Each structure stands twice: as structure tokens, then as C-alpha cells.
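Project outcomes to date are best conveyed with an example. Our students and postdoctoral researchers have been running inverse folding experiments weekly, and each run begins with a structure described purely in C-alpha cells. The record below, which covers 219 residues, was selected by the lab manager from last quarter's runs and is presented without edits.
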């Protein structure tokens, strides 16, 4: 299964984008403008969190109308949510922790998945399932770069997507670490930035993050 996940280009796309916007949408009307703003800003990806009743419809809207945006579902806690997300058009699943049934369902159905793990025991379980990239959440509380580097020294070749405590101020440090495939963040998509229906700040902050990715990684 790991061979599939490498060959479908998902990890490569995540690394190329460099920053994964973690999006909370309350209204489906905001979905397409959000997708367009992220794309125009140079971060053509959206981890739409399953924290709202509109999440599945928002994923569907972005998947259908923003074809260049890599759209997935975040905060997925169970198989039912995973199935609803994939049915809506989600290309990948992200969890704040991991439920092994969700991981196994995704692997069996060739759905790219980034579960979270912050301890050696959690990572051992996931690595033995064939998972090559895990979310590290909440990064700021669980030790940030020092913890990630300590884990990477043991789980050789494993990559991490830190989220939670990552922001515009420390993004450069995270992106420069070879163990990090991408960084997840909310600062460019906070609801306050577009509550008036104007997504120009989302696009501007996304462009700043995309520029930092290019500077640090030479992409």
C-alpha cells in the first residue's frame, strides 16, 4: 500500500505546496471563493475540517469548481466521516489523532491519509501499517521541532506535517527542517479574514506563505 501512496503523487504534491491551509467553513457559499483565493495565492490545497455541518458540502463545492485545488477533509475521527468526505470529493483524509479502523479503511480503499501521532508508540503502530507521513499535532504543545527531530532520528525516513502552533513567524524554521513534508496552519484562512465576504486577505497571506516555501525549498 505504501507503494500506491508514493506512486499516486500525493506526498509529492503536499511537499510541493509546502503549507496546508486548515480551513473551517460554516457556509457552503464561502467554499468556492476560499478555493479560488488559496489557488490564486499559490497554496492550492485545503484541509476542510469536519467540525461544521457544512463541511461535506464545502468539500464537494471545491472539488467540483476548483479543479487545481487539492482538497481533503480534516478532523476526521471515524469511518463514517471518512466515507462522507470521500463521497463528497475529498482526495485525502487528515486526523488530529488516529483511529486504526479509519487508517485501515483508507489504505484498503486507496484513499491517501495523514493520521496524527506524537509518541514513539503511536508512530510505531502507524509505520507498521505502511504510513510514511504523519501529522504532528498540536506541534507547539508537544515539543515542536525538537520533538520532531528526536522522532525523525529513530523513525528514519518518516516525514511529519506539524500543525497547531505553526504560524507566519515560525514557518521558516519548520519548512527548513528536512523531516517536515509540509506545515499545516490556519493563519491565512481564519474566519475573521473573510467574514465580510472579501477573500483578498486570504489570498495575500497565502501568497506570503507560498513565497516563503519557494525561498526556503527552491521550488
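After processing, the design step wrote out the following sequence:
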Amino acid at each position: 500500500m505504501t507503494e500506491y501512496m508514493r506512486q499516486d503523487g500525493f506526498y509529492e504534491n503536499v511537499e510541493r505546496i509546502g503549507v496546508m491551509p486548515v480551513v473551517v467553513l460554516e457556509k457552503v457559499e464561502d467554499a468556492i471563493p476560499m478555493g479560488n483565493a488559496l489557488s490564486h495565492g499559490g497554496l492550492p490545497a485545503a484541509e476542510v475540517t469536519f467540525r461544521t455541518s457544512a463541511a461535506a458540502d464545502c468539500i464537494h463545492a471545491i472539488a467540483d469548481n476548483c479543479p487545481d485545488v487539492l482538497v481533503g477533509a480534516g478532523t476526521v475521527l471515524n469511518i463514517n466521516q471518512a466515507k462522507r468526505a470521500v463521497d463528497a470529493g475529498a482526495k485525502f483524509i487528515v486526523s488530529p489523532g488516529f483511529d486504526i479502523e479509519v487508517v485501515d479503511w483508507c489504505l484498503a480503499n486507496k484513499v491517501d491519509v495523514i493520521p496524527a501521532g506524537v509518541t514513539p508508540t503511536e508512530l510505531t503502530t502507524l509505520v507498521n501499517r505502511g504510513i510514511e507521513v504523519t501529522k504532528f499535532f498540536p506541534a507547539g504543545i508537544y515539543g515542536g521541532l525538537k520533538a520532531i527531530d528526536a522522532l525523525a532520528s529513530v523513525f528514519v525516513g518518516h516525514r511529519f506535517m506539524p500543525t497547531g502552533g505553526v504560524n507566519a513567524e515560525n514557518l521558516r524554521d519548520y519548512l527548513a527542517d528536512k523531516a517536515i513534508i509540509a506545515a499545516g496552519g490556519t493563519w491565512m484562512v481564519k474566519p475573521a479574514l473573510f467574514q465580510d465576504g472579501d477573500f483578498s486577505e486570504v489570498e495575500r497571506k497565502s501568497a506570503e506563505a507560498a513565497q516563503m516555501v519557494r525561498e526556503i525549498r527552491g521550488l
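The two ends are 28 Å apart (CA to CA). Residues 200-217 form the longest helix (18 residues). The training component of this project remains on track.
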